[in-house]
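Q: Could you predict the 3D structure of p-loop containing nucleoside triphosphate hydrolase?
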Amino acid sequence: MDNPQKVSITICGDGGCGKSSITLRLVRSQWTSEYDPTIEDSYSLTRRIDGQTYYLSLTDTAGQEEYRGMWASSNLRSDAFLLVYDITSPSSLDVLQEFNDLIDIEAETRLDAWEHRRDPKSKKKGNRETGPVQPIKIVAGNKCDLQESRAVSAREGLEWARKRGCGFMETSARNTVNIEETFALIVRRVVEARRIAAGGAPSGTGLDGNVVGEKGRRSMLSLGRHGSTEALGTRRAVTAPLSPLPGGPEKSLETESGEGNPGKQSKFRAALRKLACWR
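A: Sure. Here are the predicted structure tokens for p-loop containing nucleoside triphosphate hydrolase:
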């Protein structure tokens, strides 16, 4: 059995935007309409993605302004950050700027520390020094089941994310829309950032949320195998059909093609229906 790779993820956003609902839907397959403000909760679980087992360490943080000062510095050392807002609340998207600024400062700190430790003679010696792994950022527009109350369009959320180098998804914890897929996207981007950093280049994200390495190397890491360039110059993720998730603490998120097989095509259509919140 393969050794699980650990991926730490901090979930942040304004109070009441659904951070805990997303977390509990992923961890326990549960959803509740009751709102209980979180100060900080931690969870761990395993997922199998693309044939590899990953140990996910999740930190669900406080959203209320009076609790944000309690953010531990350890939260900022996470591999990735899920920035959640409520599509019915424009102010919840504005609040994400504060969290994004903290994460960007952490990214600069990691790069500065790496450059301080870096051996200037390493290239002359022919060594390939491991670079710093920059934090991955994904924005999730939650509550996409509440279309009649939508106040932030998917286009607005996507543009906000692109301008800050974040990936983007819309989710519904209530209807289990893009929950597993969002965390699979996070894991794939962390894995790619680590791969780039292992080559000696500082990893990071470009304006479209793609991982960028040395000499502008880029890798599109959409949820499925397909991505398209739209008129806005944006890339829109299309979710490939997912294998049925077995019971138990470990679930598999391996993708497969839906072409050439009627059964798989029906699964593909079902997956596209799940993305109705994009339209």
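Q: Anything worth pointing out?
A: The two ends are 41 Å apart (CA to CA).
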